Structure formats: C-alpha cells, structure tokens
Predict the 3D structure of the following.
Amino acid sequence: MSKSVFPRALEDEAIYIMREVAAQFERPALLFSGGKDSIVLVHLARKAFFPAKVPFPMMHIDTGHNFEETIEFRDWLAQETGIRLIVRYVQDSINQGRAKEETGKYASRNILQTVTLLDAIEELKLDACIGGARRDEEKARAKERMFSVRDDFGQWDAKKQRPELFDMLNGKINVGENVRVFPISNWTELDVWNYIKEENLALPSIYFSHKRQIIERDGLYWPASPFLNTTEDEIPFEATVRFRTVGDMTCTAAVLSDASNIDTIIEEIKEAVISERGARIDDKRSEAAMEKRKNVGYF
C-alpha cells in the first residue's frame, strides 16, 4: 500500500468540527454547491457520524445558471447518501422582487445568491451553515475563523470574530444570529485533491478534461452558454478544457487542460502559476470583491 500524502490531522480536525456543530447548534445545514470542496464536506460528515445518519441536511442555492453536470451530480449524491436535500432558487427571489436580475456584458446571478441564502436561513431558522471555504483561496477568506459569526442581517464583520485558541470553538450566538462553519479552512487545494484521490471520491465530470464550446474574454476562457451576454466579435470555439473551481456558468472560467484523471490534475496543480480562484470571474470585479460580498452575507 502506498504511503499517504494527505495530512490526516486535517481530516481529524474537520471531523471534530462537524461533531461540534452537531453538539452546539440546533438547526445546522451543510451548504452544497456541487463543487469538490462541498463534496469533501459531505464525505467528512458521513465519516463523522458513521454508522448513524448525518444529522443535518444539505442545502443548495440554485441560481438557475449552474452547469448541468453539477445539478445531475447533486441529485445523484443526495440519493446515494440518503442525506436530505433542500434546494432554494434564485429565480424565486427574482420573481418575488427580492433580487434584481443584472444586465449587461458581465451580468451574473452570483451575488443574488446572498438574498436567497439569507431568506432560506430565516425561513428554516438555521443557526449554523457549514461551508467549504478555505483560507488559501482568497485574501478575504484568509482571516476567517472556523466558526464565523454573522449578525441578524447575515453580515460578516472581521472585527467581531472570536479568538479560537487550540481546539476551543464558541458557538454561542444571540437570537437572529447564525454561524458559518468552515471545517476545511486549513486545507489547501492540493490537500483537497490528495484527499479525493485517497478516499476515492466521485466528482462532476467538468473537473476533468473535456471538449467544450468557449469564448475568450479578458484573458479568460468563458464557457459558452445561453446565460452569457456576448458581443458580435466573441465567437465560440471548441477547446479541451476543465474547471478548477465550480460556480455558475457566468462566473467560472475554464482552463486549457488535458488532465483527464486525478493523478494528472494533481501534477497540473503542483506546476500551476495561477491560483485556483484566478479562474473565478466574480472575484475580478474589484480588488475587494469577495470582502464586499461577505460583508452583505455571502457564503
């Protein structure tokens, strides 16, 4: 048997956090995007409570602009694991006048998810939401706590976060507040992929190289889709690509790649000179794009 390259202390820490969530909160949920990080979270939750069932549901905020492969995988995983799946739709928020559809060349529903998420938290009375954010992804996430306290408007304020000494996690909150929980904060992108390999986890096919119609815009390869507002000179062409990170079709760029299995993906990541979030179009709206979204209640 080959030697493990994944630091098992990271798994132990994540499982401990999952159990703390179950112990400290009354109505938690696991935020599921269909991406590799949330898939790892589902696996960790199953390990944390085995042989019992996972004691909280998965919740997906569906923008309506998701990759078809992601939605198919989401539904398959819910059926495969038996974990209850809750889905709330951004389109419903738009129809109710709670969110306004963006227009123009860079229109996206990414930020609109916040409205739908906060409404779902209030509707379901959730006091904790488990997410797959990692500190290595982006500077705004680098200062996150494992237990990230949000006020009664769902907003995040770095100055109000609590110290987390050793393994002591404080989930005490006031009425109306909630906590976002990040069990894999200390993992890197490479840790995630090594874990996926060692645990033999299934993933949506878009993580692996495939042929797809794309357009080139702002130095990035955008997936062609009916949701993308293109100009006359943006002509789709076919290329062999994969996705390092998975969001909406309007905010996630592809990378040119022939990596068709986990081993070649791991080697590709080791040699990469651009960060994982470098393929997230939504992060490029401003230098503080992620910070601003978190301040109003983003994941």
